[in-house]
Every structure is written in C-alpha cells, then in structure tokens.
C-alpha cells in the first residue's frame, strides 16, 4: 500500500509541528541592563557640609567676640569650674531623657513585628544621640541609628523597623510642642503684654498645628491612597520615572506606618513619653540657669523660651553649635529676661556631649549581626 503523504525533498527529516504555546506566545523582549547611579561628585559631597560648618563656625566666632563680657566669663567659670555638681545634675537629667527615649523606640518597634531587648534599644539610642551631636547634618544620628537598627531586625522586617525612626522623631517634636503650647497658653497675658513678643505669638500656635496636621496625614489611609495613585501616575512621565526607586521605598515606608492607625494606645504612650523626655530637658536647663548665678528666674517664661529655642535648634546641624549661641541670646532675653543666653547654650551643648559619650563606646563595641545579608546569608529583597 502506497503512502499518500509527500516525502520531504532532499532527504531532510521533517520538522516537529509547533505547539499551540509556541505559536501564540511571543518571545520576551530582552530587558536592558540597569544603569548604575553615578556617585555624587567630590565637590557635591564636600560643599554642603563645608558651608554648614562655615556658618556654624562664623556664628560661634561672632558670639564669642561680641558677647564675651566679664559676667559671661564668671558664669562659664561657675558652671564648669566652681560648681561641678551643677554640671553633674544636668548630665543626670539629660541621661534620663536618653533612657526614656530607648523605651519609646522599643515601644514603636512592637507593632512592626520587631522585638529587641531594652538594652539593645538603649545602645542604639546612645549611638544615635552621639552621632547627632558630632555629625554635620541634623539627622546624622538618625541615619547612623537606622543602619545599626537594621542589623538588629530579622530578615524581612528591616524596612519596617527602620521606618519607625521617622515616627519617633515626629512624636518627640509633638511632645516638645505640646509643652510649648501649654506654657504659652498658661502665660499668655504676660507674654502678650510684651510688644517685642506679641507679634511672634501666633507662630507658637501655627507651627505645632502644622506639625500635628502633617503627622495626621502620615497616618491617614486617604492620604496614603492619594500618594499611591500619584506615584502610579508619575510612571507616565520619563523625568519622574528616574525617581521610581526612591518613590517605591517611600511608598513602602508610608505603607508600614499605616499599621499605627490601629494602635492608638501605642501612639498615646509614645506621645506621653515624649512629654516626659522634654520635662527632664527642662530640669537640665533650669539647673544650668541656676548655675549661671543670675538668681531665681520666673519658671513659666523660662519654659516658653526653652521650648522655643530647643525647637528651632532641633533642626540645626552639629548639635546646634554656633546657631544655639546666636539664638539663645535674643530668645531668653526677650521671653525670660535671662542675660547671656549664649552661655546657657554652651552649657547645654557641653552637657549633651558629656551625657552622650557612652554612645561612642556603643559604636566602638558594635559587632556585625549574623542576620545581615552577606556571603552566608543571601540578600533579602525586603531589605532597604
């Protein structure tokens, strides 16, 4: 019986028929290799810190050359030489702030599924506080603390753990501004009577309100949804697509903070702890004012001046050195009738440096955590 199928010409073997999948599915286009980001130039890396350092040095030089009176010399000598107990009590009060701050950070980590011991949290808080003083940028301490905190977090939880540092900073500022508004309201008639202070009083209410609104927006589900939709729309523009990796990280951080909407008790506790932190800061400052030998000062106006000065200097680099000396003078003179405010600023900065010294030993004694990605631990994609 002869076959009706034609034989292939040339003796070549017949090709196998294409399957349905091969017929329908096109081959995937080759993906371009990611272009590594260029590191910032040496000029860019050094110009910003150099400008900040120069401004701080210029302000400090100006204050020392124009405000170094005989009374100021006596006050400095009394605090740092004649009455060491004053500095010791101030350092003790400042240290309590760090101990409370460590508990606050540990409390914020729990909703994110990160459990660390109190002494681990205390070590990280000391480490961040130390670098907060000695680094040029005002957030240098938080940046260093984020690195070491990530090492303490388990794989898959590092971004969640590090993200709470933003909320930790915001709750600290809210505690400070809560006390500032409270004291302003309590002594409003006295402050309003001063024509030099009266025009600025509105800012003592506007700034805390803006920060409160910003914190509420950070925890709002509607704002998070709006932000996510905005990031999705940004993908249609080539200029904004370059910011896609940064936007993705910000979106993930934003998402992790949404958990706190269901944990109001944690937020209330951290807010209360922040108020307690700044109350010990008040004790530290009032002890130093007493050590200056200017006699008793009205506690209420001192509190308002203290909160205003510390809020402004909280955004200053290098622990507020230079800017603190320049701003403490007019603020404390106008609000609390305290002369030589720059002496108080210098005493506060010296107290902070001495109180944060354990952070240096925490840094020197830090060891690598085996949970970190490395040759033996493959990199976790959820890590920052």
């Amino acid at each position: 019986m002869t076959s009706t199928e034609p034989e292939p010409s040339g003796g070549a073997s017949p090709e196998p028929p294409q399957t349905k999948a091969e017929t329908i599915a096109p081959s995937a286009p080759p993906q371009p290799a990611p272009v590594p980001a260029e590191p910032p130039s040496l000029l860019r890396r050094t110009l910003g810190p150099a400008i900040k350092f120069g401004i701080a040095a210029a302000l400090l030089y100006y204050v020392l050359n124009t405000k170094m009176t005989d009374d100021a010399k006596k006050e400095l000598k009394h605090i740092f030489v004649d009455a060491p107990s004053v500095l010791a009590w101030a350092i003790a009060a400042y240290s309590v702030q760090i101990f409370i701050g460590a508990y606050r950070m540990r409390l914020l980590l729990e909703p994110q599924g990160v459990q660390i011991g109190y002494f681990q949290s205390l070590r990280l808080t000391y480490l961040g506080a130390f670098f907060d003083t000695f680094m040029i940028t005002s957030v240098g301490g938080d940046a260093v603390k984020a690195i070491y905190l990530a090492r303490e977090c388990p794989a898959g939880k590092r971004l969640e753990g590090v993200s709470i540092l933003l909320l930790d900073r915001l709750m600290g500022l809210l505690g400070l501004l809560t006390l500032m508004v409270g004291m302003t309201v309590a002594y409003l008639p006295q402050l309003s009577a001063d024509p030099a202070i009266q025009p600025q009083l509105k800012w003592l209410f506007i700034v805390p309100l803006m920060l409160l609104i910003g914190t509420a927006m950070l925890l709002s589900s509607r704002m998070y949804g709006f932000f996510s939709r905005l990031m999705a729309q940004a993908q249609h523009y080539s200029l904004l697509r370059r910011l896609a990796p940064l936007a993705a990280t910000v979106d993930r951080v934003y998402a992790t903070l949404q958990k706190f909407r269901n944990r109001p008790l944690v937020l209330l506790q951290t807010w209360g702890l922040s108020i307690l932190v700044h109350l010990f800061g008040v004790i530290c400052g009032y002890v130093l004012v007493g050590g200056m030998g200017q006699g008793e000062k009205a506690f209420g106006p001192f509190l308002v001046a203290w909160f205003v000065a510390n809020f402004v200097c909280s955004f200053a680099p290098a622990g507020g050195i230079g800017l603190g000396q320049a701003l403490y003078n007019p603020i404390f003179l106008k609000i609390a009738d305290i002369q030589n405010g720059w002496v108080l600023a210098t005493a506060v900065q010296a107290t902070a440096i001495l109180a944060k010294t354990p952070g240096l030993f925490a840094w020197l004694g830090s060891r690598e955590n085996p949970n970190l990605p490395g040759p033996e631990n493959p990199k976790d994609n959820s890590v920052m």
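Residues 68-364 form one domain. Confidence is low (pLDDT under 50) at residues 1-13, 19-29, 31-37, 369-384.
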